[in-house]
Amino acid sequence: MDISVELTFSPLQDDFEERIIDFIKKLRASGLTVLENPLSTQVYGEYDAVMKLLQTEIKTAFELMDRGLLLMKVVKSDRSGYEPHF
Q1: If exposure means fewest CB atoms within 10 Å of the residue's CB, which of 36, 57, 63, 64 is most exposed?
Q2: Apex CA 46: angle with CA 65 and CA 60, to 5°?
Q3: Following CA atoms 30, 32, 46, 49 in sequence, which dihedral angle do they give, to the nearest 10 degrees?
Q4: How far is Cα 27 from Cα 29, in angstroms, rounded to an integer?
Q5: Spacing of C-alpha 81 from chain mean position
Q6: Please, how many CA atoms are within 13 Å of residue 79, restricted to the half-sphere of its CB?
Q7: pTM
Q8: Alpha helices in the chain (DSSP H)
Q9: CA nearest neighbour of 58 among 72, 44, 45
Q10: What are the pLDDT digits (tens) for 18-47?
Q11: DSSP code of residue 34
């Protein structure tokens, strides 16, 4: 089963930029489809592969910061090819 996950990662501390960059670089290196925009990062792929990656990388990111917030949306389908029809 394929899924699409949208992530918004916000370390709640002053030195946040490095944490976000490291997190995104690890997602990119996974081999999964990863798309980024200024507000969020999307990860697309097979459910078990995506969730295994996120479980590991979210835990690592949280261990490297004092406080943080992660918003996550999960859609059951690969929406990486979505194009608006208007």
Answers
A1: 63
A2: 15
A3: 0
A4: 5
A5: 17
A6: 13
A7: 0.89
A8: 17-28, 47-63
A9: 72
A10: 888 999 999 999 999 999 999 999 999 999
A11: E
Measured on CA atoms in the order 19, 21, 26, 27, is the torsion positive or negative? positive
Structural tokens at position 86: 């208007």
| Amino acid in the structure at residue 41 | T
Q: Does residue 50 register a pLDDT over 80?
A: yes
Q: How far apart, in whole angstroms, are the C-alpha atoms of residue 51 and residue 14? A: 29
For 64: left if phi > 0, alpha if psi spans -120 to 50, otherwise beta; the answer is: alpha
| 2: amino acid identity, one letter | D
Q: Which helix (H) or strand (E) holds 46?
A: strand 41-46
Tokens matching residue 65: 């910061």
